[in-house]
Write a structure and sequence with these properties.
heterodimer; A: mainly beta; seven-stranded mixed β-sheet; B: mainly beta; about 0% helix
Chain lengths: ~110, ~120
């Protein structure tokens, strides 16, 4: 299994609070991704990173920010959580190169009440 | 933008039988890659198989194979000799091939496969 650790694995918080999810990899892969998974939607891309301090928006980036100050860590922040952000969040990594598969972490279940 | 359609929200198969999951996609790109991922109840996302669009030969991985029809933009997954452990949600996901670097996956909404003993 790819060395990807997501933390926390579960979190319950209240509307309006800030939340940060962490993705840590031990593979030294260049690319890292954040997806959310909701019933009926599959996985949708939030943000991704193609190197330290290099990030780009995905399909559902509103209300989320990311940071990558080190190769191994990719942080996803909800500045002011809303109930619509209740979801399961997945981090993925891939080596550089066209068509390289992504390898996923175990996911974080986030509930916003 | 790519769109991916998995037209079968749910399917079932008898143990030891064969089942085919369908996937169609829409893209204007000529070079891309396609993946199938499996998500069992444990919630892990597991890579099942990968296909390069420029290759005419269909990819196979043990009991898993694809039927890739580029002109029809179809990428179906065939599971032979189905096992109870194959029960999962299956996602089709294409991605473009770019010289500028990797591009993210675009996922279909998934097909839930049940295996009946």
């Amino acid at each position: 299994d790819a060395g990807i650790t997501q933390s926390p694995r579960h979190k319950v918080t209240e509307t309006g609070t800030p939340v940060t999810l962490r993705c840590h990899q031990t593979e030294n892969h260049r690319y890292m991704y954040w997806y959310r998974q909701d019933p009926g939607h599959g996985l949708r891309l939030i943000h991704y990173s193609y190197g330290v301090k290099d990030t780009d928006k995905g399909e559902v980036s509103d209300g989320y920010s990311v940071s990558r100050s080190k190769t191994e860590d990719f942080l996803l922040t909800l500045e002011s959580a809303t109930s619509s952000q209740t979801s399961v969040y997945f981090c993925a990594i891939s080596v550089a190169g066209a068509g390289q598969p992504q390898h996923f972490g175990d996911g974080t279940r986030l509930s916003i009440l | 933008a790519q769109t991916v359609t998995q037209s079968q929200p749910e399917m079932s198969v008898q143990e030891a039988e064969t089942v085919t999951l369908s996937c169609t996609y829409d893209t204007s790109e000529s070079d891309y890659y396609l993946f199938w991922y499996k998500q069992p109840p444990s919630r892990q996302m597991i890579l099942v198989i990968r296909q390069e669009a420029y290759k005419q030969q269909n990819a196979t991985e043990n009991r898993f194979s694809v039927n890739f029809q580029k002109a029809a933009k179809s990428f179906s997954l065939k599971i032979s000799d189905s096992q109870l452990g194959d029960a999962a949600m299956y996602f089709c996901a294409p991605t473009h091939a770019r010289l500028s670097g990797n591009t993210p996956l675009v996922f279909g909404k998934g097909t839930r496969l049940s295996v009946i003993a």
